[in-house]
Amino acid sequence: MNNNSDHKYVIETHDLDIYYGTFKAVTDVNLQVERNAITAIIGPSGCGKSTLLRAFNRMNELYANSSIRGDVCFNGQDIYAREVDPVEVRYRVGMVFQKPNPFPKSIYENIAWTARIHGYKGKMDEIVESSLHQAALWDEVKDKLHQSGLSLSGGQQQRLCIARAISIQPEVILMDEPASALDPIATLKIEELMQELKKNYTIVIVTHNMQQAARASDYTAMMMLSRDGERSGTVIEFDETTRIFTNPKDKRTEDYVTGRFG
Amino acid sequence: MLRKTFEHEIQQVKDDVLLLGSMVEQAILNTVDALKKRDIKAAHEILSADKLINKKRFDIENKLMILIATQQPMAHDLRLLASCMEIISELERMGDYAKGIANINIRMGDAPLLKPLIDVPRMAQKGVDMLHRALTAFVNEDVETAQKIPVEDDEVDALYNQIYRELMTFVISDPTTMERANWLLWVAHNLERVADRVTNICERTVFIATGEMTEIKSTDDEFWKQQKNGG
């Protein structure tokens, strides 16, 4: 896959439709994800936010019958092209899920095992420490690296999952509601962490929490079901986050962010 | 419609802003009237009324703060509440101008007016009229009207110019009138500032409705240029 990090947008979609069988879940998305920025995807439940996010690293293919039309480019290269290995795509475009899902292994092994599988040949202690540092978890776990990852609190588990995701040095981290199962303090820690991480990575986050999108993201894509009979999700407005939350162009975005529709 | 409670509270804030506005309008008219009649007792009443204006402003500010904290307004709601914060501060300062005129009235003591007040009440009437329409435009988010009102500031400036020239004539012909002329000039200056602040309110109204933050018109520069060129 391309290493062309000069390409202006890390991820770009062109006329992207996503299907589950014959059901068209997402229609006609043209989105550009800027490098070293945080892009939020917001919108009411069931409008296709997570489906769109999963198309960015071919995670949708793990669901039966899913298919796409149009294309998704990573550094300018179509990730759905025949010669592209989906495993490599997911290696470059990592993902963090709603519910923290550490492996039932030690904190240390959660990272070391991941790095090893992906062929990391360097010093294991180093990658473990640096990943935990980057995920702002090191100070909290450095004295108990060999305890189970599942012994940590929810917020710590989520940061462990982020540490695990960055241990293989992806370019992009996709986050699907990463803080919705966390309390407000743990949520703020994740948001602070995102600000640190964007210096080295590009982040795309799906969130139901509009305040979170407003606080934490640089760009916001507003999704909604189309008004025609098709009832398929699409991006109705995409702009700088400050604009979306102070003066959106589309009436439906306005109604959604002011809490009058949703 | 979701957020019925919030809608209701927003309406209440708008009503409160209107109420504060009418308190200020009344203060401006009353203070000029008291000056015209050289009524010191009425001037003292203006000072007490100003305390109520200040209190009302703080009350609204507090309500706005609570609404922002608890409702986390976005987009139009955010622009409206943030602008109300600005508008009530403008209104409160206009109240201070009325108070300033009352203070001049009190300081003048027994000294008679240098001349009968004709243009000063006109300025007050014009300013209050502009303010009233500006607040109506604010409540209705009437962009067109909000953009037109500031142009009328020229009339207020013209009256101020006229008063200035007239007072200068007095001073030149009889320098002992200096202090009394100066008092009246300050009165006129306060009224001139009222109209300027109306412009700020109109700019907020345009911002609330459109999201565009622009200066509608600044006649101040023009005015001072005229003064420099000998009016």
Give the topology, please.
The complex is a heterodimer of chains A (262) and B (231).
Chain A: E1 9-20, E2 23-29, E3 32-34, E4 38-42, H1 49-55, E5 66-74, E6 77-78, H2 86-92, E7 93-96, H3 107-117, H4 124-134, H5 138-141, H6 154-167, E8 172-176, H7 184-197, E9 202-206, H8 210-216, E10 219-225, E11 233-240, H9 241-246, H10 251-257
Parallel strand pairs in A: 4-9, 4-10, 7-8, 8-9
Antiparallel strand pairs in A: 1-2, 1-3, 1-5, 5-6, 10-11
Chain B: H1 4-36, H2 40-71, H3 75-107, H4 119-140, H5 143-148, H6 153-173, H7 178-210, H8 220-228
Mean pLDDT of chain B: 93
CATH superfamily membership of chain B: Phosphate transport system protein phou homolog 2, domain 2
Give me the oligomer status: heterodimer
Number of domains of chain B: 1
Q: How many strands in all of chain A?
A: 11
CATH superfamily of chain A: P-loop containing nucleotide triphosphate hydrolases
Which descriptors would you attach to this protein?
heterodimer; A: alpha/beta; Rossmann fold; five-stranded antiparallel β-sheet; B: 231 residues; mainly alpha; Methane Monooxygenase Hydroxylase, Chain G, domain 1
Question: Care to describe what's here?
Answer:
The complex is a heterodimer of chains A (262) and B (231). Chain A has one domain: P-loop containing nucleotide triphosphate hydrolases (Rossmann fold, 3-Layer(aba) Sandwich). In chain A, helix 3 (107-117) crosses helix 4 (124-134). Chain A has 262 residues and is α/β, with parallel strands linked by helices. Chain A is built from ten helices and eleven strands. Chain A has helices at residues 49-55, 86-92, 107-117, 124-134, 138-141, 154-167, 184-197, 210-216, 241-246, 251-257, and strands at residues 9-20, 23-29, 32-34, 38-42, 66-74, 77-78, 93-96, 172-176, 202-206, 219-225, 233-240. Chain A has a six-stranded mixed beta sheet with strand order 7-8-9-4-10-11, with helices on both faces. In chain A, strands 1, 2, 3, 5 and 6 form a five-stranded antiparallel beta sheet that branches. The longest helix of chain A is centred in the middle third of the chain and has 14 residues, at 154-167. By secondary structure, chain B is an all-alpha fold. Chain B has one domain (7-228): Phosphate transport system protein phou homolog 2, domain 2 (Methane Monooxygenase Hydroxylase, Chain G, domain 1). The longest helix of chain B has 33 residues, at 4-36. Chain B is globular. The termini of chain B are far apart. The mean pLDDT of chain B is 93.
